[in-house]
Every structure is written in C-alpha cells, then in structure tokens.
Design brief:
Helix content is 47%, strand content 10%. It has 292 residues and is α/β, with parallel strands linked by helices. The chain has two domains: 195 residues, 5'-nuclease (Rossmann fold), CATH 3.40.50.1010; 78 residues, 5' to 3' exonuclease, C-terminal subdomain (DNA polymerase, domain 1). Helix 1 crosses helix 2, helix 8 runs antiparallel to helix 9 and helix 8 crosses helix 12.
C-alpha cells in the first residue's frame, strides 16, 4: 500500500517562530531561524521516499469561508507580520523544490486541504503531521496523526482510549465545548467531561437533542441546567459544527512531483543566498542522497 504524508507546515513553522530559541538575522536584515528550523524538520527521508508528500499552508486568515459564517472566527489572531510573510513565502518555494505538493489558498485552511487529501488518498496509508485536535476527525483505518512536535502517534484506538470518543464524534465534541484557539464559543456550562459523557451515551449531538425532545433526563450532573443551555444555544452549536467540520470536497491535484538534482542545486544556492547554508550543512548532505 502506498504511503502518503500530509504536513500542516504552517503549524510547524509557527511552533519555531513563537518558541524561545536562537535568532539568525541574514544579510538583508531578516530573521530566518524559524525558516531554518522548519527546513531541518522537513529533511526527513520518509517524506522523500513516500508516494506523495503534501505541504499545506494557511493563507486564509481573514478571508476563509468560515469568516463569512462567523466574523469572530479566529478574530483573536493577528495578521502575519512582514517577517512571517517573508519566511513562509521562502518555505513554500523550498517545499516545491523538494518535490512536495504545495496546497494553499484564500478560501480554505490547511486543515481543509489535508481533509480533502485524505478523501482522495483513500487507497493509501496516510500520516497527518500536526498536533491540531481538529484533525482527529480524520482518523481512520488508513489514517493516523503524528504530533509534529514530539512524534507521538494518534490512531482510532488511542483516540478511544485517551479521549473516549470516535473520530466521527470529534466535530460534535468541539462544537459543544468550543475552541479557544479558534475563538469558537462553546455551549455555556458544557465542559470536556459533560460533552464526553453525553456523546458516549447518545452517540451524537443530534441524538442528544432528540433525547431532550423525548423527555429524557440527561445522565450528567446538573442535568436541567445543561438541558436549558443546550436548548438556548442550539443556533450556536449548529454554527460551530459548520466551523469545526473540515471540508473534504476541495479539488486538489496530487500528482507526485520529482525531487531531482536541479531542485537540489536550487535549494543549495538559495540557502547560501539566505545566509543559512552553514547551519543547513548536515541537512543538505542528507538531501544530496535523496534526489533521483
């Protein structure tokens, strides 16, 4: 079975950008350490030996279709600064010359591109490289997640063991509890334990509401208060489900690209131009043994 790697590369970059660490200013006055660290992370033989490797970028802050649904979506995040734009544009060029499929756009987020790729790659063993809990809704018999920071692996079995839920319940779970990082407000009073208990008992949000309509007493502490909150915030929950559910219907071109000697020479020259050739030396030596 062919192997595929789907990388949330913007998340990898921002982990290095916001983490305390060294600073490298190139001759043009730009900070380039997060770019350097991201490139080192990408030089993984598994990515080059796979049938296909996808690098998905986030370029839709403020323009994503979700902002039309809810103007407050991710309103807590600042637009990227010039040094971020500079480094991400270079990172995109590096990814293209490494032979990766690069996906980005103003309407959809990186997670949506990854979701659509899993739909297309149903006949492949897919590894999603991210630590975004939204992506757990994509776990399947052929899809796992590997934390891009610590390497830990999530599959359907671990999700059930550690969280107590199935992948198809993740959208309802996040819709109930909300997501602070995306500025999504959950149902007041419904926390992780309550949401998990309700979904384990009823299976889905729609079944929870069906049970309320049938006169069931919810099997949670403060049942009457939770029931009232659920009924009062049904429009919010419906909106959250649209915000949290990842799109699998984006048309994506996944023709495998080739990492060849010309691309290697381009990368080697660009690292020299950017002033990161020396700290990239070991990674470049690895790359030299990977091109076809």
């Amino acid at each position: 079975m062919k192997q595929a790697h789907l990388i949330d590369i913007s998340a990898v970059f921002f982990r290095y950008y916001f983490a305390p660490g060294p600073s490298i200013i190139n001759d043009d006055g730009w900070e380039v350490y997060p770019l350097l660290a991201s490139l080192r992370w990408l030089v993984n033989p598994d990515f080059f030996n796979a049938h296909i490797t996808v690098a998905a970028f986030d370029e839709s802050l403020g323009t994503c279709f979700r902002h039309t649904l809810d103007p407050e979506y991710k309103a807590n995040r600042a637009l990227p600064s010039e040094d971020i734009i500079y480094q991400l544009s270079l990172l995109k060029s590096f990814c293209e010359h490494m032979g990766f499929v690069v996906l980005a756009g103003e309407e959809f987020e990186a997670d949506d591109y990854i979701a659509s790729c899993t739909h297309v790659l149903s006949d492949a063993l897919v590894t999603i490289h991210s630590r975004d809990k939204d992506l757990r809704q994509l776990l399947a018999s052929n899809v796992i997640m590997q934390d891009s920071a610590n390497g830990s692996v999530w599959d359907e079995a671990r999700l059930m063991t550690d969280v107590g839920l199935k992948p198809e319940q993740i959208v309802d779970f996040l819709s109930l509890v909300g997501d602070v990082s995306d500025n999504i407000e959950g149902v007041p009073g419904v926390g992780v334990k309550t949401a998990t208990c309700l979904l384990q008992h009823y299976g889905s949000a729609s079944e929870i509401y069906a049970a309320i309509d049938a006169g069931d007493v919810l099997p949670v502490r403060g049942a009457q208060r939770i029931q009232s909150a659920l009924l009062e915030n049904k429009p919010r929950l419906d909106l959250n489900q649209q915000l949290v559910c990842l799109r699998k219907d984006i048309s994506v071109s996944l023709a495998p690209l080739e990492f060849n000697q010309d691309n290697y020479l381009f990368i080697d020259a660009l690292t020299q131009e950017l002033g990161i050739h020396r700290p990239m030396k070991k990674a470049l030596e690895t790359l030299a043994g990977l091109y076809v």
